[in-house]
Amino acid sequence: MLSVTNLRKTYGFGGQAVEAIRDLTLTVGKGEFVCIVGPSGAGKTTVLRCLCGLLKPSSGTVTLDGVPVTRPPKQIASVFQDYSRSLMPWFTVQRNVGLPLRNRYRSAADRAERVATALDAVGLGGFGDRYPWQLSGGMQQRVAIARGLAYAPEILLLDEPFASVDAQTRADLEDLILRVRDDTGVTMLLVTHDIDEAVYLADRVVVMSARPSVVLETVQVDLPRPRDQMATKRLARFAELRAHVLTLIRRTALDGSAPTPHHHSTIGERR
Ligand SMILES: Nc1ncnc2c1ncn2[C@@H]1O[C@H](COP(=O)(O)OP(=O)(O)OP(=O)(O)O)[C@@H](O)[C@H]1O
Questions:
Q1: Residue from 45, 206, 208 whose mutation best tests the ligand 1 pocket (most atoms within 8 A of CB)
Q2: CA–CA separation, 237 vs 220, rounded Å?
């Protein structure tokens, strides 16, 4: 289980200080799919960077299975928004996917098999010898996802992973991620500013306030699985959850006052 307790992060010092996160507490259980949403600048990327040990919190703790996270844990892989910067243009697709495996898997044959399986999983089986710049944006992002999967992490952190692709590709990639989750049981923590996406994918949506951010509410998404882009989004319950999250975010984006944390609440509980 990944736990964040009373995380606080301030960038800089004195008059230059930017209080990004005031108080964030959340847990992600094994095999769970949690989405974090919040207005622009709420500190979503900051949270993920603290979670994967790339950034030191100002205070509070991050633990993975009870062990404090102080540097990138080997159980976690990350996929970031900007595939054009995360893929090496001078390496082939399979070399890119295999890069993080070098420190984890000794045998070259084992690594090659993992790369091939991951590329198959994202529908890029025949593209291992290509270079990233020979692929479309959506395909490049699938390479970045394959790289995360090949590593066989327990937890996959995804930071706005579909923000740079067109709407149809985005829907396809969302479904790809759901399928991967069903097939592998990997724990997913995804950051997005897209409320529909968060409700469509998640078991729970953590709604962050505007900066300095706190958790406004954790919304339990009780929509049936498997999810379907058409059928799920037509459900009255989908519309209800979406409207609820949207209202929270609109309110916090407009309201300049310092918010107070509100850890556990779901609209289901009020019914
Ligand atoms: N290295 C830094 N130094 C100073 N301030 C920073 C730094 N990184 C981020 N910030 C500030 O901290 C706040 C949170 O940034 P962060 O990128 O985590 O937000 P976000 O929710 O991911 O934003 P967006 O949705 O726009 O991507 C912002 O106000 C940002 O300007």
A1: 45
A2: 12
Q: Which residue has a Cα nearest atom 18 of ligand 1? A: 43
Q: ipTM beyond 0.85?
A: yes
Q: Report residue 202 as tokens.
A: 């998640």
Which CATH number is correct for 2-75+155-256, 2.60.40.10, 3.40.50.720, 3.40.50.300, 3.40.640.10? 3.40.50.300
Per-residue pLDDT of the chain (271 residues; tens, 9 = 90+): 999 999 999 999 888 899 999 999 999 999 999 999 998 888 989 999 999 899 999 999 999 999 999 888 989 999 887 777 789 999 999 999 999 898 888 899 999 999 999 898 888 999 999 999 999 988 998 999 999 888 889 999 999 988 878 888 889 889 989 998 988 899 999 999 999 999 999 999 999 999 999 999 999 999 999 999 999 999 999 999 999 999 999 988 787 655 666 655 556 543 3
pTM of the model: 0.90
The CA 98 to ligand 1 mean position distance, Å, reads: 30
Burial 235-260 (b: 16+ CB within 10 A, else e): eeebeebbebbeebbeebeeeeeebe
Residue whose Cα lies nearest atom 3 of ligand 1: it is 11
Q: Which residue lies with its CA nearest to atom 29 of ligand 1?
A: 41
Every domain range in the chain assigned CATH 3.40.50.300: 2-75+155-256
> Which region holds residue 47: left if phi is over 0, alpha if psi is between -120 and 50, else beta?
alpha
Map tokens 């992973």 to a residue: 161
